[in-house]
Amino acid sequence: MRIGFAGLGVMGGPMARHLVAAGHDVAGYNRSAAKARAWADAHGGRFAATVAEAASDADLFVLCVGNDDDVRQVVGEALTVLQPGAVIVDHTTTSARVAREMTAASEARGVRFIDAPVSGGQAGAENGQLSVMAGGDAEALERVRPVLMAYAKAIQHMGSSGAGQLTKMVNQIAIAGVVQGLAEAVHFAQAAGLDTDRVYEAISKGAAQSWQMDNRWKTAAKGEFEFGFAVDWMRKDLGLVLDEARANGSQLAVTALVDQFYAEVQAIGGSRWDTSSLKARLKPTSR
């Protein structure tokens, strides 16, 4: 397949690399031209200087950018050159509203748009083990599913346009509560004078087990927060969640509280720390 890919950052770069490795003709664009050229040189893809160049003659156009406005800009430019029958897959985490906007704009040009946020973080992208939550045209998704499996371990169609983004919001709500619980558990164990490594061994095979515990317990206990998804991005995502909650009337007291805790982490210089840095705002105690 001829594929255009926009957004070659910590997530998009590895995803596009997997597409090249699977034998597809991939043209990569990034806002930083130097990053796009380095990606193309390293992985055998084609360098694209503009979005339109990446999307030109593409059967599939994939993007993984920053926020709603980035998606509007990139999709708008891609639609000037994509031919009817092409499919756009957006892996950016955005509002459901912008997914519906892009679907309408794409369909007006005979192009299919799929909102397809992912979970699994940088490690999932590097290892081709992402979970994809998709909303939009089911037939178009089935057409490109074999291609997306180059970097996904699971792809679930969630419903009409925007349903993928709403499902990603559910994912972030669940993570927020788990990470705060993890931070408090590590903090309590240290305050109680326990050996945190032994605590992990004692509780990680029972009901307390989680991905966050397995991957972030020991680093959080050491005060190390340089792993994966940044606080700035989590606050962006939780802002989308809380906006949607206000619209649909759901009650997200814990999520709102954790969002404010992340604001405290930002205030102490942790904007680029990973999400387990909620531990950093809990002051050490002396017994």
Structure description:
The chain is α/β, with parallel strands linked by helices and about 290 residues long. It folds into 2 domains: about 160 residues, NAD(P)-binding Rossmann-like Domain (Rossmann fold); about 120 residues, N-(1-d-carboxylethyl)-l-norvaline Dehydrogenase, domain 2. Helix content is about 50%, strand content about 15%. The protein contains 12 helices and 9 strands. Strands 1, 2, 3, 4, 5, 6, 7, 8 and 9 form a 9-stranded mixed beta sheet that branches. Helix 1 packs parallel to helix 6, helix 8 packs across helix 11 and helix 8 packs across helix 12. The radius of gyration is 20 Å and the shape is globular. The mean pLDDT is about 95.
Write the layout of secondary structure elements.
Elements: E1 2-6, H1 12-21, E2 25-29, H2 33-43, E3 46-47, H3 51-55, E4 60-63, H4 68-78, E5 87-90, H5 96-107, E6 112-115, E7 118-119, H6 121-127, E8 130-136, H7 138-148, E9 152-159, H8 163-191, H9 196-203, H10 211-221, H11 231-248, H12 253-267
Parallel strand pairs: 1-2, 1-4, 2-3, 4-5, 5-6, 8-9
Antiparallel strand pairs: 6-8, 7-8
